[in-house]
Design a protein that fits this description.
Blueprint (H helix, E strand, L loop, with lengths): L2 H20 L11 H20 L2 H14 L4 H11 L6 H13 L4 H13 L3 H14 L4 H13 L3 H15 L3 H13 L3 H14 L4 H13 L3 H14 L4 H13 L3 H13 L5 H13 L8 H14 L4 H13 L3 H14 L4 H14 L2 H14 L4 H14 L2 H14 L5 H16 L3 H14 L4 H13 L4 H14 L4 H13 L3 H13 L6 H13 L3 H14 L7 H7 L8
Helix pairs in contact: 1-6, 2-3, 3-4, 4-5, 5-6, 6-7, 7-8, 8-9, 9-10, 10-11, 11-12, 12-13, 14-15, 15-17, 16-18, 17-18, 18-19, 19-20, 20-21, 21-22, 22-23, 22-24, 23-24, 24-25, 26-27, 26-28, 27-28, 28-29, 29-30, 30-31, 31-32
Length: about 575
Amino acid sequence: MNKLVKSLFVILFLLCAIQVFADKKKAVEPTLEGEAKVQFDYAFMEGVRFKILGDLKSSLTYFDQCMKIYNRSAAVRYEISSILSLGEDLNLPLQLMREAVQLESDNIWYNLLLANILQKKSMIEEACKVYDELIAKHPEREDFYIIQVDLYTSTEKWEKAIEVLNRYEKQFGVNEPAIIEKAKLYSKMDNVKRASSEIMKLIKKYPENTDYLGLLAELYLSHNQEKKGLQLLNRIVKDYPDNGFVQFYLADYYRTKKDSLNTEKYIRLALANDNIDNNLKVQYLLKLLVNQADLSLSTDHIYRYVQLLLEKYPGDLSVRTLNADFLKRENKLEECKKELEFIISKEKNNYLVWEELMLLSNQLGDTAAMKSEGLECLNYFPNEPLPYMMISLPMLIEGNYAKATGYLQKGLELAPDKSFIKSQLYAYLGECYYKQDSIEIAFSMFDSAIAINPNDIMTLNNYSYYLSLRNERLNQAEKMISTALSADPNNATFLDTYAWVLFKLKNYSLARFYMRSAIENTEEPSGVLYEHYGDILYMNGDKEEALKMWKKALELGDDISDNLKNKIVNGLSVEHEE
């Protein structure tokens, strides 16, 4: 069922519940009198009340009482069926609604629910018969025709669907959606003659609308009647030179025919036409860009089209945005950044451009730009979390942890629950708190980040490393760094962390293997890597090689421990992990 039909059924169902509730006189069967009438009326109204409140169990209990008082009520059957039809077993609801319709055949709501249940049970023919009766009694209801057409179409009963559309047209006159739907159905049946005659109805009624000529041309082309199709398209191009859609359509057509000259001709005609909206041109080139591989187009080819637009319309922001997108795809990040800066200078209230700009500055490692862009962005979008994170990262790098924490906390308040950005904010807060020696808070932040994004490999690595440094939860640390390493097995940082966790777990031989891999996968190993390797070699009994690594670490410096010189003189204590 398409979205339109689903929506109609929901609306009809709700209207039915309101109708029954509003007119409570209909709830009291005319054959009931005295105490039975009072009891039935009370039970029915309570059943409707609980149904509206969502307490379906209580609602069914009251409707069951109604059936015991008077078992010939169509209204009660409807109410029970409307609840039970929400479940998987539709046999009882179907039986009840058939009985309800037999009791009150003219009731629209009962017929609609019966048809709905039949459709759910894939009994399409019978559902359509219900709509036949509804349309016969209510020919003014357009929605009944639409639903019946959709039902027949869902089972590929094209001819029956067309019959319904013909009745619709007879009732309501020539109607664009109905005519186009008929044409599509005839096209599916390969009946080009009937399909074209339907489209001609629209052309005659709306001669100024070239879209219908285009639709007819597309019909011919899709059924191997290329001569007719091209004649129509060329007629449109000649008579209506501002019709960019047709020019682009012809370009696509000639591309499928591998006719590069005509393809180029019609693309350039459309791009150079001042009367064609630039948004249409941009959308077309975006389509080429996204489907570049499938269309066998070179990047340079598309870039020439982008440049043609850029030269002709240098101040058009949609064109500049297209150029920025192209440059980003080609990894020309510095040039892309300049384009985004130009766009934002002209259009400060476009958050998506701010976001692209800040993320690009982050990708380029331009921390000064991240900070300045984030601060300016907050002037226009103070309730977006990303600027707070971008402002905080340079502060974190600079060691201004307290100030970074403030921005990160504000961003955290604004970030949607369980979102990627929220997990990142938690991770960065973990870093800030750890650097400020608020270890328990830091670890709780990392836990929150991983709870949202359990595959955040950088957070898994950092958290694992910090746990290993403190000899805490080493088994958990080993699991986390294993997950990170599985995702990126040649990452030297992850290999180092894994080796260090194994070292703290006293699995020295395996730690040696992973630390050697870490050094081999690093172009310029740092001092800390060599110091770690020395520690591991020492505990493996290779004290001479360990001494070489420690001395090399001392030469390099770079985050080495305060105890390194002592190791070189006295070796490593057995209680190294303390």
